[in-house]
């Protein structure tokens, strides 16, 4: 395993704030094998705002759920949501949450989508100045999306292709327990991490410094839907009706083990899941949400 990059004198880092971006009520026994049959969980769909300490460049990681999801998802995806018995509510989307601190979507320079599932892609339309960052392995699913292919889950207008960078991790170097990571700003302040295709093609995570002296945050997207999968208290199930929450169960489990290794090796790394129920229950409405910021470890 390679080490995380050490901090330099006058090290750049990122200020991190959580954004409310909807909720998805799901069958918990679809997510973890220790859930009781029929048990459900209402999961926050968290987005995150990062601001570079020197340049003040803004990046939003994930956009959560869009308010008009019922009208603007591909028909096949709407059918899937119905079949999966998901309940969706969006009291505030990512743009509403940015407005709480005086930012508009036009103020955001980068949008990094962890992956292209409906509870992460939000509404790209208002972010007219942003460059979108998407995993390379999601490219074909978007470019060949609905309505070009009628039965696909993904729309061809999911992101503005003329302002989208598809990131191919094949030649990225290793970082910590992860085989491939990109030093995005070139100053060690933020790394985009290849999460593999275990959950979804083109899945990306983000590792950012949160202090100049060795604090970090790891934004894990849907690498795990429940913390007990990271700790090893639960395993990934294959539900008799809904199937598996991950595209490749073994690859997803391997990436979870790498995140566990990160937590165990580096005590100053805070890991946050996109649907981090324990963190959300403690911090909802608190200073970790924009215009406040999450304290560094």
Automatic annotation (TrEMBL):
Query: Which of UniProt's keywords are assigned here?
Result: Hydrolase, Metal-binding, Zinc
What are this entry's molecular-function GO terms? hydrolase activity; metal ion binding
Source species, domain of life: Eukaryota
Which InterPro entries would you find in this protein's record? Answer: MBL_superfamily_lactonases, Metallo-B-lactamas, RibonucZ/Hydroxyglut_hydro
This protein's cofactor list reads: Zn(2+)
**SUPFAM superfamilies membership:** Metallo-hydrolase/oxidoreductase (SSF56281)
Record domain Metallo-beta-lactamase: where: 44-275
Q: Please give the Pfam families that the UniProt record associates with this protein.
A: Lactamase_B
- CDD domains for this protein: metallo-hydrolase-like_MBL-fold
Q: Which family does it belong to?
A: Belongs to the metallo-beta-lactamase superfamily.
Mind telling me what this protein is named?
Metallo-hydrolase/oxidoreductase
């Amino acid at each position: 395993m390679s080490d995380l990059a050490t901090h330099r004198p006058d090290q750049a880092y990122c200020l991190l704030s959580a954004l409310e971006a909807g909720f998805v009520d799901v069958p918990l026994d679809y997510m973890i094998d220790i859930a009781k049959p029929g048990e459900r969980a209402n999961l926050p769909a968290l987005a995150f705002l990062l601001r570079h300490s020197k340049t003040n460049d803004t990046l939003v990681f994930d956009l959560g759920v869009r308010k008009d999801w019922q009208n603007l998802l591909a028909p096949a995806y709407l059918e899937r949501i119905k079949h999966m018995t998901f309940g969706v509510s969006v009291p505030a989307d990512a743009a509403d949450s940015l407005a709480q601190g005086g930012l508009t979507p036009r103020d955001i320079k980068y949008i990094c989508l962890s992956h292209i599932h409906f509870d992460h892609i939000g509404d790209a339309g208002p972010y007219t100045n942003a460059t979108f960052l998407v995993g390379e392995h999601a490219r074909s699913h978007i470019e060949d999306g609905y309505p070009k292919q009628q039965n696909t889950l993904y729309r061809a207008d999911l992101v503005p292709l003329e302002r989208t960078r598809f990131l191919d991790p094949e030649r990225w170097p290793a970082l910590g327990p992860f085989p491939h990571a990109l030093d995005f700003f070139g100053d060690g302040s933020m790394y985009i991490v290849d999460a593999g295709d275990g959950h979804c093609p083109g899945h990306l995570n983000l590792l950012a410094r949160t202090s100049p002296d060795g604090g970090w945050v790891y934004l894990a997207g849907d690498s795990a839907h429940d913390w007990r999968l990271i700790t090893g208290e639960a395993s990934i199930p294959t539900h008799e009706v809904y199937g598996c929450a991950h595209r490749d169960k073994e690859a997803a489990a391997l990436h979870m083990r790498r995140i566990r290794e990160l937590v165990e090796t580096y005590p100053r790394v805070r890991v946050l899941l996109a649907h981090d129920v324990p963190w959300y229950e403690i911090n909802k409405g608190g200073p970790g949400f924009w215009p406040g910021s999450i304290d560094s470890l």
